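User: Here's a chain of 123 residues. Predict its fold as tokens.
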Amino acid sequence: VQLQASGGGLVQAGGSLRLSCAASGRTGSNYIMGWFRPAPGKEREFVAAVSWSGTSTSYADSVKGRFTISRDNTKNTVYLQMNSLKPDDTAVYYCAARSGLWVRTNANDYDYWGQGTLVTVSS
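Assistant: Prediction complete.
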């Protein structure tokens, strides 16, 4: 599975961005998808994840109520809608995928990674 992330950019605090991650290759099987970003002391910190069906989601406490993850399996694409952005959200955001049905929050559980897209939030 190959993952291509896009949608990053520069935004002022309080603004919004929508990230996209398109999957290609062996996408016929069920797979879950997640978003991660680097954090102090962690190579990749969990941000959000969505199950294969899209009915189950999980969020880091730091983004709950501000970020929404969703997916469109007809387009093999997962989205991360980011609202009320803060300077602390500045990071390279990576999408990830693994076979399975249920969400995972540990980066080590994911097998496939995209190249990352940079989000910069100015104060």
